[in-house]
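BUG: 3D viewer hangs when loading the predicted structure for this chain

Environment: internal workstation, default settings.
Expected: structure renders.
Actual: progress bar stalls at 90%.

Input used:
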Amino acid sequence: MNRGISVALLATLFYGALLCTAILLSQPDIEEDLKKRAKAALEQIENLPSTPDLVVKGRDVMIEGEVYSQEQLQQVREAIMAIKDIRVLADNMSIRFLAPSSLMIQQVDDGWLIEGRLGNNEGARGIEEALRGQLKAGEKLQGRVRVEAHTRPSGWPELVSEWFGQFQEMVSGNARLEIIGNKLWVSGEVFSKQQQDGIMVSATSHFSGSELELIDKVTIVQAPDPPKLIIEQDEGGDFIINGQVRGQAFKERILEELQGSRVGGTVSEQLSAGEHVRPASWETPLVRLLPALVTEVEGLRVRAEEDGFMMAGTVRGQEKKQSIDDTAAQLFSGMSIEVDNQLQIFVAPDPASFVISRGEDHVLRLKGILPDSQMVDRFMASVTSALEAGQPSPVNEIETGDNVSDAPWVETMCALMKPFILNVHWGALSIHEDSDGEYPQVALEAEVKDPAGGDILQALLENAFPRPNESVVPDEQPRYQRVIDLVLAKPAGPTDEDIAALEKAVADTVIYFESTSFRVNPEERLKLSLLAEQFTKVPGASLALLGYADPFGDASYNRELSRKRCKAVRDILVELGIEFLLLEIEQKGETEKSQGSRSYKSARRVEFELR
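Structure tokens produced before the viewer hung:
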């Protein structure tokens, strides 16, 4: 053989041996790299039961292990084959069929019971803790969720935890949530179709996008609690309302009617509303009837229960009561509700009054009308205890009545009995309540035995019965119209000369005014001073002030002007010591300078008459 060829063959064999040796030495590193990359690819696949075993020989890979589904097996194969340098994949994978996740949350007597099966501890603990955080006071969570490895994973535990609070507020009883696989049974009892629809609308919205299929098992049952409504009006006109009704809208409508019935009035309410209350057939009639009741009825009382309706109070006038009666009869017609109409027509009470008088025979006489006999006995006891030995017994002519005003002044008057009896020679002390007037009228007209006794009696009366414009403590003390006319006992009354002088002064005194004016000029004021001087000498007299105006201007203006002129004259006479209640005003309006056979300096005048 050629020497050169022999050398070439030997060199080729030598380098081939070196190459094989290098390949054999590097093979373990290549297999380890492929195995590492394959494991990394498998870790990206979620929810595998366990990491599969890998056997790498050269560039061939064999994989063994379990998956939960065919889809997951395909993910494993695609992940391995996507690795560069792998030539052949042999798998010995098996599919493990998982049990479905399940959950049951059920309402029990003292709280909630939870049972079920989830595939991991985190989900089981999370839902239990979330439910405990939403329990109401006094409730507890019983049972537990089991953790089982061969359970199919689920994404709904967090959704259920979030919705549980809404669910327990919306359901009325026997609540239950149950999940098996991808089905959610929503169960419970409610009292209306509106409640039922509300629960399912809420569930549909909350679980939209999840794999759960909702199954409605909510049932409608009869509400357990009967409806009841009580409305009462106190003496101040404020309303108190309590009870329980079904609808929040009905409650708000009732409160709106009551609150709008009085400016500055209040409504105190303890009225609950909820689906646990049965519907009331009287709700619509009451809403329509209530405006008339709160407007026309005083001391209103309404009591409405499941099968009965009562209204009571006082109505001012037969016509108004008849209108309410007719409206109520029409609204409740055809209903199986017993209507108890206790409305009454208001009858104004007779004004209470009391008079104690002493005549020339020195006998004390008690007259008047009071609401009850106890007040009469109180007066008699006060009078009897003040009498001195030998004085005649008082004559009791006081009447009582069922419909008489309250007479809150009885105790005050009783306290004045002794001062009156001890200091009055003859005269009367009286009090009258006027149904048309704002203030009761108190009058003391008497002849007193001595000036000191008269001053004491007058001071006691003024303190006990203040006038509207007088400042007293306390300021809320009742006010009265008050007349006090005390004279010192004299052998005889006014002389004939005094009476004649007063009659002449009244006839001669005429007060004149400027055009369109009601101001009293100084010279006219002097006339009033002389008239007042004569008037005070004749006790028991009273004056009428007759006001006139000239015929210029319309009649209404002239009547008002004549009234203002009379008022200006009266104010001056009061300043001069004449009692206000002894002066009467009559506005005559326009007139001429002459009346009959008498002529005047001006038609703009005030003249006087004895009454």
